[in-house]
Amino acid sequence: xxxxxxxxxxxGRGERLADGGGPKQxxxxxxxxxLARAIAPFLAHGxxxxxxxxxxAHDRSRYEAAVAPHxxxxxxxxxxxxxxxxxxxxxxxxxxxxPERVLIHDAARPFVTPDLIxxxxxxxxxxxxxxxxxxxxxxxxxxDGDGLVHETVxxxxxxxxxxxxxxxxADILAAHEQAKRRGVGGLTDxxxxxxxxxxxxxxxxxxxxxxKITTAQDLELARQRVGAVPQPADYRTGSGYDVHRxxxxxxxxxxxxxxxxxxxxxxxSDADVGLHALTDxxxxxxxxxxxxxxxxxxxxxxxxxxxxxxxxxxxxxxRAAGGAxxxxxxxxxxxxxxxxPHRQAMRDRIAAIVGIDASRVSVKxxxxxxLGFVGRGEGIAALATATAMFAAGRAQGPGxxx
Length: 402
Ligand code: CTP
Ligand code: MG
Hints:
Blueprint: E1 4-10, E2 28-29, E3 32-33, H1 34-44, E4 48-55, H2 60-66, E5 77-78, H3 83-94, E6 101-106, H4 114-123, E7 128-135, E8 140-143, E9 149-153, E10 159-161, E11 165-168, H5 169-181, H6 190-196, E12 200-205, H7 216-225, E13 234-247, E14 251-254, E15 257-260, E16 264-266, H8 273-285, H9 291-294, H10 308-320, E17 323-333, H11 343-354, E18 361-366, H12 372-375, E19 379-390, H13 398-401
Parallel strand pairs: 1-4, 1-6, 4-5, 7-12, 17-18
Antiparallel strand pairs: 2-3, 6-11, 7-10, 8-9, 13-16, 13-19, 14-15, 17-19
Helix pairs in contact: 3-5, 5-6, 8-10
């Protein structure tokens, strides 16, 4: 009998981290799974000869995707209904190799250090196990089911223990077999199994934080620890441009407002050049073509149509593609009418059509210094940009959005 084997128990279901993302040991932690991180220090440790994971019967493909083959890594064992049973299965799988010592570690602890492995191993002796622990720092209360405090428990001599827990292989195998024979179940660590068999257990000081991931907050904390920053949002910008000819009339529609004027804008719809430029800009954020493609001027349905529906439609396409309009900016280019007095009302109107706050809408105006068709009063032009935000990796193509 020689050597050291490590058992990584990974057959739990992570019910306390019930966010629908699957067992916690297969979650990503900065590019590697929790399980891969928990196993790696054992594979790398000079004293550890073999490593075996104990996995749930349904997790074979998850395991294979998570853990690369390694000369020290044995074929995984299948877990049981409780942690205690999973460990017993892991021990049974090692019987033929009969290592001298064994380390039993939770897959849910991804930050075990090489030093801690060495420290635990050094403290293992015949008839004596070793477990890392930290003196309890908080004041302890015993409560009833409603959270009503019954008593304060003196914390002197109390330790919160962790894994890896080390034992002589023959000792802990016998202890688990004895617990099974006697019907002692539900023990949450191997030290408890050892104690029940009359073995001594020594606490050694833990290194690092060696935290166990139990809740969603723990997973978040672990991710912060490895510097796994959340994927930045995916911003996309579209631009739009439109011109309409000025003709006979008594008002113009600009950015959704009817403004009295001695000319009118000519066009198939209401010829709102501002909303048309904005619509194209919004469509541009999802590569969904242009306003003419969605509302062909040849289609009689759009004759005289109010242009707010064009903009609202484009925004609905962005939402369907998983995006949200973050910001809109439109510049009207005209000699008249004066835009300044209407600027705020235009911002409010656009914000209402799009369903965003007016602070996310900018309306600007400029004359063309008397130059060109705008300068000669033959038409009004508008330029726009739209910025849309998508959750990273979520943006879908325009085909999916339509
Ligand atoms: N474990 C196991 N087999 C089980 C139960 C637990 O191998 N039947 C493992 C877990 O995968 C984990 C370790 O034991 O690595 C510690 O258990 P715990 O933190 O309780 O994990 P889960 O049982 O998965 O979580 P929960 O109790 O919230 O369901
Ligand atoms: Mg559990």
